[in-house]
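Action item from last week, closing it out:
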Amino acid sequence: MAKKKRTPQEQSADPAAQEMIIRAEELGIGTAFTRADEMPPCNIGGAGMCCKICGMGPCRLTKEGQTGVCGATIDTIQARNLTRAIAAGAAAHSDHGRDMAFTLKAAANGEAEGYYIRDVAKLRNVASYYDIEIEGRSPEEIADELADLYIAQFGQQKGEIIPAIRAPEKRKKIWKEQGVWPRGIDRETVEALHRTHVGDDQDAEHILQHAVKTALADGWGGSMIATDVSDILFGTPAPILGQANLGVLKEDMVNVVVHGHEPTLSQMIVAASQDPEIIEYAKKAGAKGVQLSGICCTANEILMRQGIPAAGNFLHQELSILTGAVEAMVVDVQCIMQALVGLAENFHTKIITTSPKVKIKGATHIEFDEHKALTIAKQILKESIDNYKNRGKTQIPSDKEDLIPGFSHEYINYMLGGSYRSSFRPLNDAVMSGRIRGVAAIVGCNNPRTQQDWLHTYVTRELLKQDVLVVETGCGAIASAKLGYLLGEAGLDKVGPGLKEVCEAIGIPPVLHMGSCVDNTRILTVLTQVVEEGGLGDDIDQVPAVGLAPEWMSEKALAIATYCVASGAYVIFGGASPVSGMPDRMSDSDIVLKHISEGWEEIYGGKLEFIPDPDEMIKATLEHIDKKRADLGLPEYDPDRFGESGDARMLELEELPLSERREAIYGVAAD
């Protein structure tokens, strides 16, 4: 039986989304929100109790002591299902890293049209990690050798993947002792599938040990490679002004929405859209020009580097088409709904697929090739412009918010100390003193089974009140952007007194936008630098920090969570657990759930837990942060200790007569 249909307000916390959901209902068009209401999740598969890896099944285990046809127990089945999901997520992000490495190779050899090395400093810095000779060599020579090194990590069969040497020393020792330092990125993913094939690995803890190894191959391998190469080719992000939400679409311009995850495509479309040839072509079609905007992680990529506006996050992909104002949605890989083509048939929008890995029946396919990138980008834009004349009635929401994205770990290092003394020391000192209680990384997807954006923004808002500095990536970052949390002055009246002092003194927003979902490796880099700076322990598991994915839905999220746990982080997911079982009926169904929490914590110092209630999620976050503070011997968090200093306080003091100012500052009267 379908559950009760939700109102637009219950389906999304975003007014722009609500407006488009109402329009969809008026037009009789279904969306992910209505499909989620009409299609209740399978309670057996959703709890990880269904096995379908062979032709003897599918086997559903719903009773105490029940096994599959082959004799597989519930813990074996759940461990296999979870590991396969982690392998799929790791494959998706790591394959993206592979493509980026090949693009770097082509650019270094002058074989990639329109691409060149934008950040030579980042190139030299990354190369130095791996003892690649940089003195007396051109950027292209360095990039060519770095690309070869990175490409080799995917097919390597023995040894250790090299990007992981950048982890803290104590963490690397744990990985070696546990035998989970990945040998090669592809090898671990292949072995994960082999181990979970019927008749293979049947010990849940042993299976999950390899899940960790597979995830690490992504986080400290493929994803880290992707972020490094993106910065080298397109520039390391620094703060820039942007906008977010459906109101960024323009009535008098050709609207092209790019959606997916590959910056090689989106960055080139940005370049092509600014070409005088394309601008003139759009004007001849009756438009003022081309308005680019992004959806999902592609949005974050072009937002944080060029300031191109974000039309929204994952659940906005259908809603943007519902405006009737989008000439083309250009997609590549990951998080792309097959429903887009059917939806677009109700309007004039063209769905253009571009990746050799992704085709959607009914979509226009223009395959992207980095060797002819600019030419193909212009072809895509011209096809979009040609569609402008077919536009019908439009309804573009007015909602949009300014934001400041682009806080790479390099920029955070710079902003804390400036050009001559860049350092994480001020951040560490702020945590040690208690001005910053701890750090929360709030990341991940939207899920139409929850109220879109609400969990992201509620958790963010409540943690800010408790002096927790928040860093965000992916769709979670766009959720906060749509509410204006990513501006320097935004919400400081609702931020705890200590965090407010830090934000005012440095000139940063209380929520730092750190990029796309693949850029979660930037957070690992920040945590590593925090450890290396000193004062907050000698490994990541000692830092007062928590990772949260309140609205997760993707296998990639499970891979990210696992490599963060293996790096020492406490990770909390909202929503349903994929390995929950039915503990009220099956006492052996929580073995896997306990192992990824208590078992992994004992081994790695990090743990993964699923907490659907947002208030319990916040409580668990603060308890963990406070425990880590106590373990480090730091002062107990006390919000009353702060709030009377910082730039705002100095401005207040300047208004006082000189005789009163000294007494206010030093507590003694003037002579």
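Closing note: The chain has four domains: 8-60, 74-234, 242-390, 406-574+611-638.
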